[in-house]
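Thread: flavin-adenine dinucleotide complex, take 2
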Amino acid sequence: MKALIIGGGMAGPVTGMACEQAGIDSTVYEAYDRTADGVGAFLTLAVNGLAALRTLGLSDLVRDKGVDTPSMVAEMDGRRLAEFSFGAPLPDGTRNQTITRADLYGILRDEAVRRGVPIEYGKRLVSAESTPDGVLARFADGSTARGDLLIGADGLRSATRRIIDPNAPAPRYVPLLNAGGYARGVTLPGEPGVMHMFFGRRCFFSYVARPDGEVWWFANPPQPTELAPKALAAITPEQWRTKLRDLFAGDDFPALKVIDATEHIFSGWNTYDYPKVPVWHRDGMIIIGDAAHATSPASGQGASMAIEDAVTLAKCLRDLPDIPQAFAAYEGLRRKRVERVVAQGKRNGDGKAMGRIGRMMLPTILKFVAKTSSRQGWLYDHRIEWNEPVSTA
Ligand SMILES: Cc1cc2nc3c(=O)[nH]c(=O)nc-3n(C[C@H](O)[C@H](O)[C@H](O)COP(=O)(O)OP(=O)(O)OC[C@H]3O[C@@H](n4cnc5c(N)ncnc54)[C@H](O)[C@@H]3O)c2cc1C
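Output below.
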């Protein structure tokens, strides 16, 4: 069996390696050049995502470059409101990892190639069609590729999603912007690795201090109406600095200190999610990762869901007699879980942009959430057993 994997972000290379482990050949086709990797930001990979990487022997590679992030502390007006655990560590002690996006993409792509999964760059999928013996993919550079199936791991603006279902809904705009950076030479309270969240009067702020003293931070300025990509790109880093300084002026947490200690502010992402994509597969084509169920970054689970998808799909293709049955089994295993994560991400994001009354209620809400977060086993304790066969029963 030969799989054409569209997208060389998070899900694409992991799918390639999972397919390889399942005895399926694949090639990854990525629209951009490899040099587009270093888009600045960082993310936190949850223990459930790391456990999925572990089934492919990849979690140690991530751990080597990441920072242990065992928990999250919420603060407001100088008061510590609650502490949330990010789930129990894996048996070898692995905790949530905070890692730069560039490092994570680089690790996954290099390891995929090392394991014999080819990655072709500059290959933007523009159309695909079913043929009597599989799928034919066409790329913007005029080239084509044939395979038995096509896996769209091509992210939020997925071309594969449109090809499978031209009536697929558009992503939902979540009214928060994303900006952040890496600060040096600033000393902050708290244990290295712990994620600190501050509910400011006008804007949400968060930081993780690394053991080497560098501080990784992000902010989520509320933005009620969606800004066009051009308008967003036109805001300079220095304009962002001024905007953020204004938003945090008078707040009782170290945002200004951190912003001033940051040489380059990376910024300019709108936030979107995808509460429900009705059609995930048609004929020999399927979507996974953000293409099928993008979640607001506030869930902290987008990358982990993409990785779980990759491993689960490879198992289904390995164990079921044909591609339609494998796709159906995959959807049965994944849909409820990922839609629950997207819903939770939306709720978390809403909590970052509360009005005055919301802020008054926040301490009570967070205490309740912290108490019930011990019931988050469904999220963090999810494990995929590679050797356990998938059945349709
Ligand atoms: C600001 C921000 C913060 C985040 N923080 C976190 C976090 O802390 N924790 C977490 O788990 N998740 C986080 N996420 C979400 C996470 O990054 C995504 O869920 C994850 O990257 C999804 O992986 P994916 O492979 O589906 O998509 P992507 O990683 O987006 O990869 C898609 C790839 O497909 C390529 N592509 C697109 N179109 C085509 C085409 N037509 N042909 C070929 N290739 C194509 C793209 O260039 C890209 O390389 C965050 C996201 C954002 C925006």
